[in-house]
Amino acid sequence: TEIVIRATRTTNVLGEGGRRIRELTSVIQKRFSFPPNTVELFAERVTDRALSAVAQTESLRYRLIKGLAVRRACYGVLRYIMDSEARGCEIIVSGKLRAQRAKSMKFR
Q1: Spatial contact of 78 and 40, defined as CB atoms under 8 Å apart
Q2: Is the pLDDT of residue 76 over 90?
Q3: Where residue 63 falls among pLDDT bands split at 50, 70, 90?
């Protein structure tokens, strides 16, 4: 069984000397009760990071955690996505944005 893990930073998946990927392989083997030495894990770099929704949500998340303003963070991510020749993009952020009352913002 071959499993491909797509990541923006493959070094984090592989670990020091491939230690982490071996640990992941053994965990998957035990969790899903595969026979020994039948699971192979591969780490693959995401080809275009700007067009990966998961990578961009992580980027936005870290910007907001650092304390960057919501509009500035969203427009920065939006600009990065659109500069990589995407057709369109919409970012929806909802919850307590700076104020006590919850609200929802859309960026297009």
Answers
A1: no
A2: yes
A3: very high
Q: Is there a contact between 21 and 10 (Cβ–Cβ < 8 Å)?
A: no
For 82, the token pair is: 């659109």
- The three-state DSSP-derived secondary structure of the chain is CEEEEEECCHHHHHCHHHHHHHHHHHHHHHHCCCCCCCCEEEEEECCCHHHCHHHHHHHHHHHHHHCCCHHHHHHHHHHHHHHCCCCCCCEEEEECCCCCCCEEEEEC
Report phi then psi at 48, rounded to 5. -125, 100
Q: Residue 3 contacts by C-beta under 8 Å, 6 or more apart in sequence?
A: 28, 39, 40, 41, 42
